[in-house]
Amino acid sequence: MAKIGIIFNDAKAEAERIAGELKETLSRLGRQVVLATGSSGLLGYAQPGHPVCHTPIDQLIPPGFDADMLFAIVLGGDGTVLAAGRQLAPIGVPLLAINTGHMGFLTELYLEKLPQALDQVLAGDYTLEERTTIAAQVWEQGTLIWEALGLNEMVLHREPLANLCHFEVAVGRHAPVDIPADGVIVATPTGSTAYALSAGGPVITPGVGVLQLIPICPHSLASRALVFADGEPVSICAANLDQLVMVVDGNAGCYVLPGNRVCVKRSVYPVRFVRLQSPEFFHILRQKLGWGMPHVAKPRLSTVPPRSFP
After folding, report:
1. Which of 23, 37, 150, 178 has CA 20 to 30 A from 219's CA?
2. Are strands 271-275 and 127-131 parallel, antiparallel or unpaired?
3. Closest CA to 195 of 52, 38, 82, 58
4. CB under 8 Å to 58, separation ≥6 — which residues?
5. What does the alpha-carbon distance between residue 278 and residue 156 come to, in Å, rounded to a whole number?
6. Mind telling me the catalytic residues?
7. What is the pLDDT of residue 296?
8. Which residues lie closer than 8 Å to 98 by C-beta, 6 or more apart?
9. Residue 192 phi, psi dihedral angles, 5° rounding
């Protein structure tokens, strides 16, 4: 019996209701259905008294989900998709992301098109797209004390954010450099349209084998975004003796103490998405972010006579 998963945002009543209806529909069609919420993929934030909360990347898989599952339907917004990606990437289960949120940049379609999409997927009429993820790790004297899988980005900054810090950054085997800034971002191509975009980084199309390093409000005209091959790991240490905060995909974070080292590298676990039609990235940029909208010239008002000057 084919197994199908459903991951939903239990903070939204509509997503929970649709998840229950989907389970009944798929069960009547002879499919085994396993439900889970995206909550275990939301790692939360460490507290001052508990700066380290280490949950290994491959231990976030929901009960009942395994590599034999055909696909998983994700009901929610981009946050739920990010959480589901963290939960299922280690076992390679593809995600069919249904937007019940707002922006829905990572989702495949809206809720009203779900019945037709379900027929198409069950008929095997779809393709798979893989998106690069990063493994963000915190090391203390050679011991791994925290890690998280990120589809978008890792952000490292001081607390409070407005204070300047000096970050010693080494990309691969290249010589380390000093970056004076409020913080630094390491982003994937998928994350290039998220926080990295707001911080002035370039948009990178999915499938390009690169990562990018972006200083946040750098106190230097020479500190700009750097794009590099994703086979190069990034090592980051703070020159200042202050506590830092690391956040992954906006929903997983920990404190980074003086002497700790942050390592960010391409993960061996990509997130796989179900695509019902050929992905058109520029169309999504235009639809969601308004990129490349046609310029409409200001019309000339022929009834207004040209101004004359003496």
Report:
1. 150
2. antiparallel
3. 82
4. 90, 269
5. 35
6. 78
7. 61
8. 18, 73, 74, 75, 76, 107, 108, 109, 110, 111, 114, 117
9. -65, -15
Tokens of 221: 């005209």
Q: How far is CA 286 from the centre of its chain?
A: 19
Domains with residue ranges and CATH for the chain: 3-132+269-289 (3.40.50.10330), 134-266 (2.60.200.30)
- The residues pairing with 245 across neighbouring beta strands, listed in sequence order, are 157, 255
Q: What is the pLDDT of residues 67-121, one digit of tens each?
A: 999 999 999 989 999 999 999 999 999 999 999 877 678 888 888 889 999 999 9
For the chain, which residues score pLDDT lower than 50?
Answer: 51
Q: Of 265, 248, 223, 199, which is closest to residue 85 (Cα–Cα)?
A: 248
In this predicted structure, what is the pLDDT of residue 211?
98
Nearest CA-CA partner of 71 in 100, 17, 108 = 108
* Cβ atoms within 10 Å of 42's Cβ, excluding its own: 20
Q: Is 193 in a helix, a strand, or coil?
A: helix
Helix (H, G, I), strand (E, B) or coil at 80: helix
Q: Decide: 212 and 247 in contact? Cβ < 8 Å.
A: no
Structure confidence by residue, pLDDT tens digits, 18-45: 999 999 999 999 999 999 988 877 666 5
153-158 and 143-150: which strand pairing? unpaired
Tokens of 301: 């008002």
Which residues sit opposite 303 in a β-bridge?
A: none
Given this model, what pLDDT does residue 305 score? 60
Cα 61 to Cα 55: distance, rounded to the nearest angstrom: 11
Distance in angstroms (rounded) separating the CA atoms of residues 30 and 3: 9
Tokens of 60: 């976030």
- Please classify residue 131 by burial: count the beta carbons closer than 10 Å to its beta carbon, then call 0-12 exposed, 13-18 middle and 19+ buried: buried
pLDDT of residue 293: 73
pTM here is 0.88
Measured distance CA(217)–CA(183) in Å, rounded: 7
Looking at residue 45, what is its pLDDT? 58
